[in-house]
Write a structure and sequence with these properties.
Elements (H helix, E strand, L loop, with lengths): L9 E10 L2 E11 L4 E5 L6 H8 L7 E6 L2 E2 L5 H6 L2 E4 L11 H8 L6 H14 L1 H4 L11 H13 L5 E5 L7 H16 L3 E5 L3 H7 L2 E6 L2 E7 H6 L1 H8 L2
Parallel strand pairs: 3-8, 3-9, 6-7, 7-8
Antiparallel strand pairs: 1-2, 1-4, 4-5, 9-10
Length: about 240
């Protein structure tokens, strides 16, 4: 079982999620503190994506609670959760391929009323992803997979998250882009954004995370420091390779 910490930025307690007659999450609890990178590890079908979708309001839990910055998110619409500073970059990028990079980024700032603030955020995103700066007016559908992932993360950053939920950001990317994405996640965190990271590349995730949770069959079976996870032979054998 996971413990939760008083005053955590994100506090998930006893979350149960069902799809029809199938229980996807069995009373899961976790927390993310200010400034942390926390990794959520587990095999395919363990419930990792369901956890993120429940936190961001895309899936309604059967029971349990999610609180962000001390306020319950129960019944809160996903767009209002994003406006509160909890932003979800889902698996699969889901960019608008027929729109330009600029237009995709600006959609991330839809709730920002000040044009000046939106422009400032765009410049900050482009400082993190200079590759996008060179292609601002290019159709997003012409980008490589790695560039599309940069755009997906950049669009999420345009919302000004205090906590960023990242679902499989390195999935399907070439090794060079994988390295780039993890460097970017670390940089985002160093700029003040906490991160809850679901990632197939468990070893890389643990190298940048402070803590980690292990999810198996919809249950959190272990919580530990990232260093302890890396040193655990059972975790190494199951998720990190020999």
């Amino acid at each position: 079982m996971s413990t939760s910490a008083a005053g955590s930025m994100l506090d998930v307690r006893d979350l149960v999620v069902r799809y029809g007659g199938v229980t996807a999450l069995h009373g899961c609890s976790l927390h993310v503190d200010t400034g942390e990178i926390v990794a959520l590890l587990g095999g395919n079908g363990a419930g990792k994506t369901t956890m993120l979708r429940s936190i961001s309001g895309l899936v309604r839990p059967a029971s349990g609670s999610v609180a962000f910055l001390g306020r319950s998110l129960s019944g809160t619409a996903p767009f209002n959760i994003a406006r509160s500073g909890l932003v979800h970059a889902p698996e699969g990028r889901r960019i608008f391929t027929r729109m330009t990079i600029r237009e995709n980024l600006d959609l991330g700032a839809y709730a920002v009323r000040s044009r000046q603030e939106a422009d400032r955020r765009r410049q900050e995103v482009l400082s993190i992803f200079p590759r996008l700066q060179e292609r601002l007016d290019q159709s997003a559908g012409t980008l490589s997979g790695g560039e599309q992932q940069m755009l997906a993360i950049g669009r999420a950053l345009m919302a000004g998250p205090q906590l960023l939920l990242l679902d499989e950001p390195s999935l399907g990317l070439a090794p060079l882009f994988v390295q780039t994405i993890f460097k970017v996640i670390r940089e985002i965190n160093e700029r003040g954004t906490a991160v809850l990271l679901v990632e197939q590349n468990a070893r890389a995730a643990l190298h940048i995370a402070a803590r980690a949770y292990l999810l198996e069959n919809g249950c959190i079976v272990r919580e530990a420091s990232a260093e302890a996870m890396l040193d655990d032979p059972s975790v190494v054998a199951a998720y990190l390779g020999a």
